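Before going further, learn to read the protein records used in this course. A complete example follows; check for yourself that the lines match position by position.
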Amino acid sequence: MNILLWIRYKGTHFAGFQVQPNGRTVCAVLQDAMEAALGCRPDVKGCSRTDSGVHAQRFALSFRYDGRVPLQKLVPALNARLPDDLRAFGAQQVPEDFHARYAAHTKTYCYRIRNDRIDDPFDLETCCRIAGPLDLAAMQAAADRFVGRHDFAALCAAGSSAAAHGDTVRTITGCRVERQGKIITITVEADGYLYNMVRILAGTLVEAGRGKLDPAAIPALLESRDRRRAGPTLPARGLFLVDVAYPDLPSDPDRP
């Protein structure tokens, strides 16, 4: 059967999702647990290629499975062998042609900023600290101008295979900026992303919040396709994959 598995992980001590020859990766650690628990090492298809240090609250992956552990016992069997910073929380059978990446309708990321002059040891690994006042209204005004179908080459880091092929058009369906105490959260929903796109977008919104970038300049920035006109790439530690939408599937398992 074809299985959709939902996992969550803290990315601090992972070199991203994709298997690498020299680095602890989510995929390799998960496959090690699968081999121990299920007696096989399936080829898994992840919904995204999260970078080193990036976290995931709801990450989806699919794989073919015909082993001895029944579907309803697959999650506890895996969790018994997974490390503390990686957990499975749901599994469901999906159609034979389902692929976790290509079937995704939208993916939602959030970027967390501690707007404070002092680090907090309790969120040091999951927030980017930025000192100095940030104008939330200006940040939201800039965020609104990113919504829609645009060429996002200006928000793409060098080395992107998509950019090399000229495939830089994406649709952002929502972009909001919210503050709760000293924590500012930038949430982006889109049909796809370029390399470091959310981290660069977040850095650009910070520039607007600092008064260094006029929100009205965003359309011209996008039209320029010039990475140098956008803000800095913020650190990976503040980035979370928070949801993946598969509208053609039945309701997925309980959300953590």
Notes: The chain has a mean pLDDT of 94. Strands lie at 2-9, 45-46, 55-64, 86-94, 106-114, 128-129, 148-151, 169-180, 183-190, 239-245.
